[in-house]
C-alpha cells in the first residue's frame, strides 16, 4: 500500500480487515444481548432489579443507532 500512502491493517476477509470483523462481531453480540435483556426486563418489570435492567436496556438501545452510523451492523 505504499503507492496510496495508506496503512496496512492486516489480512482481508471478505473485503474487511480482521479487526473490523471483530468489532462487527462484538456489535452483533451487543445487539443480541440487548434483545435477550429486553425479554428479561419484560418479565421482571415489577421486581426490584427492573431499574438496573432498564438502564442497561437504554444503553443497548442507544448503541444500535450509533453502531449503524459507523456501519458496524451492516453486512
Which key phrases capture this entry?
2 helices, transmembrane helix, 75 residues, transmembrane, two-stranded antiparallel ribbon, 2 strands, mainly alpha, membrane
Explain what this protein looks like in three dimensions.
Keywords: Membrane, Transmembrane, Transmembrane helix. There is one protein chain. The two termini are 25 Å apart. The model has no long low-confidence stretch (mean pLDDT 86). Helix 1 packs antiparallel against helix 2. It is elongated and about 60 Å long. A hairpin with a 2-residue loop joins strand 1 (12-13) and strand 2 (16-17). It has helices at residues 18-43, 50-70; strands at 12-13, 16-17. Helices cover 63% and strands 5% of the residues. It is mainly alpha-helical. It has a domain at 30-75.
